[in-house]
Amino acid sequence: MKILVVSAHPDPASLTNALRDAAVAELRSDTHDVRVTDLYAIGWKCAVDRRDFPALPASERLRVPAASSAAFATGNLTKDVAAAQDDLLWADALILAFPLWWFSMPAILKGWIDRVYACGFAYGVGEHSETRWGDRYGEGTLAGKRAMLIVTAGGWPSHYGPRGINGPIEDLLFPIHHGVLFYPGYDVLPPFVVYRADRMDDATFGTTAAALKRRMRTLFETSPIPFRRQNGGDYAIPSMELRPQAVRADLTGFAAHIAMSDGKDC
Hints:
Blueprint: E1 2-7, H1 15-29, E2 33-38, H2 64-74, H3 79-90, E3 93-99, H4 107-116, E4 146-152, H5 169-182, E5 187-188, E6 192-194, H6 202-217, E7 235-236, E8 241-242
Parallel strand pairs: 1-2, 1-3, 3-4, 4-5, 4-6
Antiparallel strand pairs: 7-8
Helix pairs in contact: 1-6
Domain Flavodoxin-like fold: 1-205
Pfam families: Flavodoxin_2
EC number: 1.-.-.-, 1.6.99.-
């Protein structure tokens, strides 16, 4: 299988990059074809600006969705963005490896998403009408592919538990899992999260790397997070609210958008 690994840490000797390398080595040992994009190493341009749309007339305002759509449709995206899109189309699975900074991904990785997820490629796909609101949330350009996060966090596991002060890790990662990955169609796997990342000794790293390698061996077998599909019948269109019969009335927030494998509300 073909796998794209995108990492975002400025220090080549970081734990994030060491785990990335362990994952890549395991995947390659299992004969998978792996491409690695180290965003800091390549100096990825992360801010969207007029340079991303060279065909946009200087006299015209920069409306990013419209400019992105036109550039994608006419083949006028910049070479780095087009190459990254080709990598996403090539890969059967995407792995994003990054440290949890201020409860999200580093800016360089967010900038990779902002620029690579062009209108017509990752959003603005499919029919938009009173009965169908596009091909998204389980459908779209990247449907049929898998995605997974490798995340390092400085806090303890309890800090990210159900009653932890930082909030449950599932909630913190929901915007990435559901909004960045499931939105354009990926089947999203449970993340591999490493806690107390700044205090890891060699022995703990060996144990952690071994666990990550085991996850890599089941990359195409692990069941994805059972997000509800937008066009699967659970949502009213065009309000995009869950139908009363789809989920218990007292279940709200992120959890309402995940269905249990037995078909009951989670």
